[in-house]
Amino acid sequence: MKTAARHMGEALPIPIAMPLSERLGVAFWLALMWIAVVVFLAVSAGLWPLPEPDRMDWTAQAAPPGTITLMPAGGAAEHTAPVKVLYLFGTDTMGRDILARLIFGARVSLAVGLITPLIGLLVGGGLGLLAGFYRGWLASVLATLMDTVLAFPGLVLLLGVTFYLGPGLANIIIALGILTIPAFFRVARANTLALAEREFVLAARLLGQGNMHILLREILPNVLMPLVVYALLVVSYMVIAEGALSFLGLGVPPPTPSWGGMIAEGREMLQAAPHVSLIPAAVMFLTVLSFNLMGDALRGLADCREGQL
Questions:
Q1: How many domains is the chain partitioned into structurally?
Q2: Domain-located, residue 8
Q3: Is residue 77 within 8 Å of residue 206, measured between CB atoms?
């Protein structure tokens, strides 16, 4: 009896919340480090002591990684003293430095991968919020419009934009951004419909809060996390889409480097010089994998947060 009373008098241990870094996991932080490195190199591409991405060295075509060669310091002039150049990742079929083209090509892939989901997030997410909150005829019109966009073949839209507006980075971003709007619309609308009948929304109505206040202060913060998680997954799809378009010749026109274009340029020499295509493919793979890992980690964190509400 004394033992039981002693145990009943003791305070129960309070569960300690797991730190955010442990909840996200090691994979999230490794992926974030890789993305940070890629973004940093893309932003500071012009500051590194590397050859110009379109500079051709005809004496070192398809050179393997680690090749060291001599090039004139000022170009093709004979009186200039040659300088030693290290091709860390080798050269492509035209003697261009693969590392330099990877760093400059990251600007294209990241621009498409980050700006395109932002268009879908702002336009599709905003329309989805309105459709899920107000419902009625507005939701029917917007849903029909999104179904029309989904039914339109994406490749035909990209071909039409390329044909009428010409190939270019801005045109590719706009075309791919339009294709992402319906998916963000559906995610935002589904979450808004689920939240519109929750207790905190009903309590806000009883307190006399207006629709705009409820939409911006009560629903939007809870819908934003699923949209951001989905945007990270869309980023990886858009990086692959840009690579596929460049592989098909519909991407950014040369000599601007892009990862997909670099993979396409080396496809005819896979047996003789596989590094020309495999190195850009490996960089694209790691980047896409990193965005997917980050999205999965944040999705698990969002699911735990929803379970606590």
A1: 1
A2: no
A3: no
Give me the CATH number covering residue 34.
Answer: 1.10.3720.10
State how far Cα 26 lies from the chain centre.
20
- For 98, counting Cβ atoms within 10 Å of its Cβ (0-12 exposed, 13-18 middle, 19+ buried), the class is buried
Q: pLDDT for 220-259, tens place per residue?
A: 888 888 888 888 888 888 888 887 887 777 777 777 888 8
276-294 pLDDT tens trace: 889 999 999 999 999 888 8
Residue type, 250: L
Range of the domain at 31: 25-56+93-306
* Interacting residues of 263 by C-beta distance below 8 A, sequence separation 6+: 243, 246, 247, 277, 280, 281, 284
Distance CA 261, CA 202 (A): 53
Q: Are 19 and 292 in contact (CB under 8 A)?
A: no
91 by Cβ neighbours in 10 Å (0-12 / 13-18 / 19+) ranks as: buried
* Residue 105 belongs to a domain: yes
Amino acid occupying residue 152: F
Does the residue 19 lie in any domain? no
CA distances from 187 to 123, 142, 182, 205, 265 (A): 12, 14, 9, 24, 38
Q: What is the pLDDT of residues 162-193, one digit of tens each?
A: 777 777 788 888 888 888 999 999 999 888 88
Token pair for 14: 């309070």
Are the CB atoms for 153 and 212 separated by under 8 Å? no
For tokens 């997410």, what's the residue?
125
Give yes or no for residue 144 having a pLDDT over 60: yes
CA distance 193 to 149: 22
Asked if residue 194 belongs to a domain, the reply is yes
